[in-house]
Specification:
352 residues, three-stranded parallel β-sheet
Length: 352
């Protein structure tokens, strides 16, 4: 968490006279610089001398003995608005720990960088709950951390004493580049708003043998593999079927990729560029691409089934793509759970 001028939230609290005893760090560490999936060690924050306890690695939740010394936990972390991003899971686990210890949980809320109006994708099946999706929410939930905390607390039985400090002046229609707050990379592969906009869809390709552009300047903005016929896939897709996005066949070479996919190899890729973010649905676009690339790649296609199903929050999407089910039928199958979620969601919205 940083202020508008880049001051860390912890420093602001210290300056206000708050007695901070410990800092807790999610995946990617306190500065958001750790590689995805990398277990982070406990350390000392140099500027303040405060101990930093990692909540990603050996532990995913604060130690009860630590919480016995505290009056409250304050959560101030920038989310990206997609179910798979683990910061909201860290928030939920910390809320559970605070509830067990009987201490207050405070969310210093922040805008959803990809806006708070669009709700898209499938709703997670609770049988597939994991740290990349603890609760039955859609791929793109259209909520802030504070709103999700309220929903998690009531609908999923956490029951912590909760206070949400709203983000002053934010409206649901405002995206990150309309807030006047500089973009700060929330993790190494979330360098800008364009990546965050595509992430609710392209993240699904982590569960395949395609690269999602890690190790390039455009992670989650492009997908590819050396044997992909990108020209054939792009040429076979009518633009009218994918409003709000432009697809282009490109080449890229992952360097320093943290997913082990095609390091140093020339990759044929498909780049996605948002042309109208009000009409763009990255989740449907991902299903179109999954289906078309799977068809085009033939024997060169491979799932990582466990990873894909955890991200998708179901095995039904993978099975539907394998069976050749039309995209519209797949997406229509999401409609009723989405309607139920939106009805529940409306009870916890804080912003106009």
């Amino acid at each position: 968490g940083l202020s508008r001028d880049g001051t860390p939230a912890a420093q602001l609290l210290l300056d206000a006279g708050i007695d901070i005893r410990v800092l807790l760090a999610p995946e990617h560490g306190l500065l958001g610089s750790g590689q995805p999936g990398q277990a982070m060690s406990d350390t000392i924050e140099q500027a303040t001398g405060l101990p930093v306890h990692s909540l990603y690695g050996e532990r995913l939740t604060p130690d009860p003995a630590l919480l016995d010394e505290l009056d409250a936990l304050v959560f101030d972390v920038q989310d990206v608005g997609a179910r798979y991003y683990t910061y909201m899971s860290t928030m939920a686990e910390a809320m559970r720990a605070a509830a067990r210890s009987g201490i207050l949980f405070v969310v210093a809320d922040r805008p959803n960088p990809i806006g708070g109006e669009l709700v898209q994708g499938n709703v997670l099946d609770s049988a597939f709950a994991s740290f990349v999706g603890l609760f039955s929410v859609p791929m793109r939930h259209g909520m802030t951390a504070g709103e999700l905390a309220l929903l998690f607390n009531r609908e999923f039985g956490i029951g912590v004493r909760l206070v949400v400090v709203p983000a002053a002046g934010w409206r649901r229609s405002a995206w990150a580049d309309q807030t006047g707050v500089p973009w700060v990379a929330t993790s190494p592969n979330m360098p800008d708003l364009e990546s965050a906009t595509h992430y609710p869809g392209t993240c699904l390709f982590e569960g395949t043998n395609l690269s999602v552009g890690r190790g390039t300047e455009r992670p989650f903005q492009q997908i590819g593999a050396p044997l992909l016929d990108a020209q054939e896939v792009v040429g076979g897709m009518p633009a009218a079927s994918l409003p709000g996005v432009r697809l282009a066949a490109v080449n890229f070479t992952p360097i320093g990729a943290d997913d082990g996919k095609f390091e140093g190899q020339a990759v044929q890729g498909i780049r996605l560029e948002v042309t109208d973010r009000k009409t763009y649905d990255p989740t449907k676009t991902a299903v179109v691409l999954l289906r078309e690339i799977r068809r085009s790649a033939g024997a060169d296609w491979a799932w990582r089934p466990e990873t894909f199903d955890r991200l998708a929050g179901t095995d039904q999407l993978r099975l539907a793509v394998d069976s050749g089910l039309p995209v519209d039928e797949i997406v229509e199958g999401w409609a009723r759970p989405l309607q139920r979620f939106q009805k529940m969601r409306n009870r916890y919205l804080l912003y106009p």
